[in-house]
Amino acid sequence: EVQLVESGGGLVQPGGSLRLSCAASGFAFGSYAMTWVRQAPGKGLEWVSSINAGGSVTNYAASVKGRFAVSRDNAKNTLHLQMNSLKPEDTAVYYCAKGIERGQGTQVTVSS
Q1: What whole-number distance in Å separates Cα of residue 101 and Cα of residue 86?
Q2: Are 97 and 47 in contact (CB under 8 A)?
């Protein structure tokens, strides 16, 4: 059974940083590309970033490019999202995903 458990969310002031983590289990983590998606209040799911299985190729939504960095540690079955220069519009529940499967999410709130 695929399990994805996100952590690291919280309340941060505009301009601040957070590092999200996703602990994966139940599948061969190092063999799959992984994705971060988010859902802001009252809105649909938005793709944020993806990373290939080996970690050598990353992609970002235009809204976060240059501020967010995705990485993975295949030895520890863990996915990360470093978020810098956070803006109020980054407020959302953040999910890590393997295909259409995703975890329970972690809340990120950017507010002064």
Answers
A1: 26
A2: no
